[in-house]
Write a structure and sequence with these properties.
Structural class: alpha+beta
Oligomer: single chain
Strand order of the largest sheet: 13-16-22-20-19-18
């Protein structure tokens, strides 16, 4: 091919690929027309709805019979098409749209209703059940107008976005089904990864087994915390393997990540017996117990450090036993005599607890409750008054003086009402004075409340008082005295 033939081919290419039909353009874009504005080639936006009309017409001219296809086929939503393409798509369907308006206004369609459209074959489509993408496609084909499309889109936005609005994007994505070969390859990859992550430590023929690091303390515990305050502690991770080892933090547990901050700098290679310090910061937000496990990874394998966060609570207990027997070694109490016993109420929690003792069962109606006198109430309120008892008097006795008592079936229980502070205790005195011989049992119920946390529910406790009354052992050597 000669030079003239090559020049003719180049000119023919330029005539067919330029808008103005010029054969010569300045590639440096110093003179007009600019090549980027005059050349007609497939741009990057061709096929995505962003190509110009010149490029589309040139491509349609090379492929006869495709002009109608380009105007009728809806490949993408309208937001990706320019205005000129949208106008060309709607121009063909103007007559059908006008007919639809006439039909809807005159009521010619017998089976049509508001919110439905009629096709050429007589079938109707409900526009209320269509998704936004379906309405855009119908609008592009001319079956519904742009105003109806905007109204349907606004309605779908108010109601949740269509039929599939309740489904998450992850549920809408297709999930690939692995073949048997792919599943086997995935399982083998997991085994290789585990073998690379955890490798046994061998020293002089001895293989180390177990956790390579021990934690001091063995458990991260935050007890009796108050919401809003910041608590910090440190945990020492000591290498107990035969050779050097390293450890790192895998992740913060999801259930406590909003209140727990962990800090473990890169430890590097730690010699046997060396330790790495991990800082733990706890910022509670609510009065609730939390339990989790801090995941750590060493060269010999993973290990878990337990974490517990215990809120303040009240744990009252009665001792030494829920059954209080006043019989003693003699097996009973003589009539007109008095036996004494004590019951200890311990609070193993940080919150103070208020207790109240009452009689249950058939003896509840015969119980006599004695309230403290007004003088004792004033002493309890102001213990520094002039007529108050000595300052050396036990605080528990003052509480007992301020508390009420009950009497039932020969029993008398002191301090049936009172308050026990956190990690404190108090003593409840019980006495029994029999009136008639026989066995007596009195069931009691102890109810608790926590003033500092009224939402806390504390179960009631049962207490049983038991004693036996005995006759006086009075007898004579001779049952009969004869004065004859």
């Amino acid at each position: 091919m000669g030079i003239a033939a090559q020049q003719q081919r180049t000119d023919a290419y330029m005539h067919t690929h330029t808008i103005s039909g010029q054969a010569l353009l300045d590639p440096t874009s110093r003179r007009q027309p600019y090549p980027s504005q005059n050349m007609v080639v497939k741009p990057a936006g061709f096929g995505l709805g962003r190509a110009g009309p010149e490029a589309i017409s040139k491509v349609a001219a090379r492929h006869p019979g495709t002009q109608a296809t380009l105007a009728d086929t809806v490949l993408l939503p309208s937001k990706y098409r320019n205005d000129m393409q949208a106008d060309s798509l709607h121009s063909k369907a103007a007559d059908s749209t006008r007919g639809f308006r006439d039909t809807s206004s005159t009521g010619a369609a017998p089976n049509s209703s508001p919110g439905t459209i009629a096709d050429d074959d007589g079938t109707t489509t409900n526009t209320d059940d269509m998704a936004i993408g379906d309405e855009e496609a119908l609008a592009a084909e001319g079956l519904i107008t742009r105003d109806q499309e905007r109204t349907a889109a606004a309605t779908a936005g108010q109601t949740g976005g269509g039929r599939n609005s309740n489904k998450s994007s992850r549920e809408s994505l297709p999930v690939a089904v692995l073949s048997k070969l792919e599943a086997d390859k995935l399982a083998q990859a997991k085994v290789r990864h585990k073998a690379q992550v955890a490798q046994p430590k061998i020293n002089f023929g001895r293989t180390f087994t177990g956790d390579a690091f021990i934690a001091e303390p063995a458990e991260v515990l935050f007890k009796d915390f108050v919401p809003g305050r910041t608590y910090k502690t440190s945990v020492q991770l000591i290498n107990r393997s035969f050779t050097k080892n390293s450890i790192r933090l895998v992740e913060v547990p999801a259930e406590v990540m909003h209140v727990i901050e962990l800090g473990l700098p890169p430890s590097g290679s730690l010699a046997p017996g060396a330790a790495a310090a991990m800082a733990v910061t706890f910022i509670p937000q609510a009065n609730e117990d939390l339990t989790a496990g801090i995941r750590l990874l060493a060269e010999t394998g993973p290990l878990t450090l337990p974490l517990r966060c215990l809120a303040r609570t009240a744990l009252p207990t009665l001792g030494p036993s829920p059954l209080v027997s006043l019989d003693g070694r003699a097996g009973g109490v003589m009539i007109a005599d008095t036996a004494h016993a004590t019951v200890t109420l311990c609070n193993r929690g940080a919150l103070g607890v208020v207790y109240d003792i009452k009689v249950t069962g058939l003896l509840a109606s015969t119980t006599e409750y004695d309230e403290p006198s007004q003088h004792l109430r004033m002493i309890a309120i102001d213990p520094h008054a002039a007529d108050a008892p000595d300052a050396a008097t036990d605080s528990g006795s003052r509480k007992g003086a301020n508390a009420a008592s009950l009497a039932v079936a020969g029993f008398r229980v002191q301090s049936i009402k009172g308050q026990v502070s956190g990690y404190g205790s108090c003593t409840i005195e019980v006495s029994f004075t029999p009136r008639v011989p026989g066995v007596v049992e009195v069931p009691l119920v102890v109810s608790y409340t926590a003033p500092e946390n009224k939402a806390l529910s504390i179960p009631q406790a049962n207490l049983t008082l038991q004693a036996t009354g005995k006759d006086l052992p009075v007898s004579t050597t001779t049952p009969l005295v004869d004065f004859r």
